[in-house]
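Sample 3 of the quickstart, ligand flavin-adenine dinucleotide:
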Amino acid sequence: MNKYGSLSLAYREAGIKHTENESLSAYSTFRVGGAAAIIVRPSSADELIFAVEAAKRAGVRTVVIGNGSNLLFADAGFDGVVVVTTDMDRVEINGNRITAACGVSFTRLALLARDAGLSGLEFAYGIPGTVGGAVFMNAGAYGGETSQFLAGSQVYDGEKVRTYALSDHKLSYRHSTFAENEKLIVLESVFELMPGDRAEISEKMSSFMAARREKQPLEFPSAGSTFKRPPNNFAGKLIEESGLKGYSVGGAQVSEKHAGFVINRGGATAEDILGLISHVQDTVLKDHNIQLECEIKYIC
Ligand SMILES: Cc1cc2nc3c(=O)[nH]c(=O)nc-3n(C[C@H](O)[C@H](O)[C@H](O)COP(=O)(O)OP(=O)(O)OC[C@H]3O[C@@H](n4cnc5c(N)ncnc54)[C@H](O)[C@@H]3O)c2cc1C
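Result:
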């Protein structure tokens, strides 16, 4: 039996949900990617840690993902274990504090906060990621950002579970300490919110969603904004000024609705998307002398 066969057996014996040689495209909002040797779907922190430790013992690399809404999988897939957290969906509300497992949908969290009469997470409504992905990316929108409401997290560092205070996350614009150390896994996070009026919270959330529908190409698969916002500027504006709106490489296209989004028009490969991203970066550098930094994580 090869290393994947024994690993799969270990997962089966532990009762952990997993598949072998499954396409990753369903696990990425770009709907692109080859197969992973194993995809594991733990339903608790204990299962996640077991899955990662068993892979380590077998000499197999791992990557932990949430909803795949800020990443691009390679056409060749992933020769290792992809741990998908979306079945880890436990939420606990205690006064103004909400504790959420890493796989909880960020949009669902915003809805639960609203139902509990808690304000702060309205900005999260419509961000199609998980709590773990939001903490990793310091996700934000419409003036709100994860860092403003995060109180702390439980983090597995490859050896043991540690409690991180807000400052330990080292959050800045679309960046965190997790992006610098791939061993670190967010298991759950605590958010501290303010009491608020349910109707006002609802209204704010609806207006954010309406703005998304109006401005973003939600009708096509994408990974959201492709590039980080350059200082004192907007990636979409620079790309549009370079005449690249609608420009395509294979099935990948700079959205005609919002130039900051690369979309999958149908049948795009990771090569198409990477080729388009490079072309946009080169053109914007030539035209504006600004280096656009990719926000999307490439997993290969
Ligand atoms: C239509 C659309 C609109 C979007 N709008 C916004 C927006 O308004 N604001 C915004 O900030 N983003 C936006 N995004 C991008 C994306 O939704 C966010 O970055 C989100 O936080 C990613 O969460 P995820 O669970 O999908 O992470 P994934 O894409 O699954 O992963 C992203 C990175 O986080 C890591 N990761 C995920 N979970 C964990 C974990 N538990 N522990 C350690 N590492 C982990 C992964 O390894 C990967 O490197 C949008 C995307 C789309 C498709």
